[in-house]
Amino acid sequence: MYDVVLLTLGSERDAPGGCGSGGACCGGATGADTAPTSQTDTGQTDTDQASSQASAGKASTGQTDGDQCATERPRVPVLACADALTARGARVETVTARSDAEIDAVLARLDGPPRPDGLTWPDPDSKIRLVVATASDGQLRAVLRRLVKRYAPAPSKRPADLPGNRTLPDLPPVAVLPLDPARGGPHRDLAAQLGLPRDPAAVATAVLDGTPRRLDLLRNDGGSVTLDGALLGAADDAGRPLHWRARVEVDDTILTDGAEPLLACAVGNAGGYATLDDVTLLTAPDPADGQVEVAVAVPVVVRSSWGRKRVRLEVRRARGRAVSVLPREGKVPYLDDGVEGELTRKRSWWIEPGAWAVWSI
User: Fold this and answer.
1) Contacts of residue 79, Cβ cutoff 8 Å, sequence gap at least 6
2) Which CA distances in Å does 352 have to 110, 130, 193, 225, 267?
C-alpha cells in the first residue's frame, strides 16, 4: 500500500503584498529561484511582484482577496480526503509547509536512488503519492516550481538520457485536492479545466487507483513555471483597458514589433485566459499538445464608407515552442496562474512537453 502525503501551504508565507509577492506561498519567485537552469533569450530574471494595477485582470478571473494561502489548521476537504485514504489502507501524513524549505523536505521523499552522474532524479517506482491541497492555481504552481528547482539539471550537467525537447525529467505525478468549490463564470481553475475530481473521496480514489496524466509545463527565464497561462495588460480604475507596447514573438513569428498599442496578450498552456470579457483570445489551448498558444489584442482604427472612424479589435494568434515578450515602455502588469506581477524586462516562456502529471481516474 502507498504512503500518501497531503500537502497544504501555510498562511504565514503570505507577504504583505499578498500571494504572489517574492517568497509568498503562491509561487512568487524568490531571489534564490530566479537563476534559470537552462539557456534563455536574455539571461535576465524578474521576480513576481504584486501589483495593484492588475486588479482589473484579477477581477476578470474571479479571484478575490480571500484567495490567499491555506490556513494553519487542515481544512475540511483535507481531513475528509485523509479519512478516505486511511479507510483504503493508505498510510497518510498531513503536512503544512510554511516555507520553500518545508516544501522541499516533502518533495525529497520522491527522490530516486543516487545516479552515477550525481544528479537528483525522481523515483519512477516510488510508493509515495503526493496530494497538493490548493485554494488557487498559484498554490499548485508553487509546488511545481519547487519540483522543477529540485530536478532540473544545469545546462552544463545535462545527462544523455534527457529527451532532446526537454530541460528536465518527468516530474512525479501529483494529485490535486481543490479546497474551494468550482467557480462559475468564464474563468475556471485548472482542476475544472482538466476535469479532475473535486470531491475528497474521489481524489483519494484517483491517488490510489488512477493513472498519471502527463501535461505540458511552461518554464520561464524568471525562474518560475506556468501551468495554465498568463494574461498581460491592465485597466484603469473605471475598468477601461490601458494601452501598452511590447514586442511579442512566437518562435519566428512576430505578432507585434512594439510600435503599435496593445490591449492584452495571452500566453496559454491551458484555457484559463482564453477569453477576456467577450473577446476570444485563444481558440484551442491544449495542455498536452506540446505547444504554447499566444494571442495579442490590437486596437485598429478603420474608416467606414461614410468616412467615420471606429476602433476594431484585431486578435493575432500564433502557436509554437517558445514565446518572448519585450516591454517597450514602463511596467506591464500581468497575471500568471492567477498570481499578480509586473513585467519590466524581456520574459521568455518555453514549453516542456509532458513534463508534469496529475493522478486522474
Assistant:
1) none
2) 20, 21, 19, 10, 14
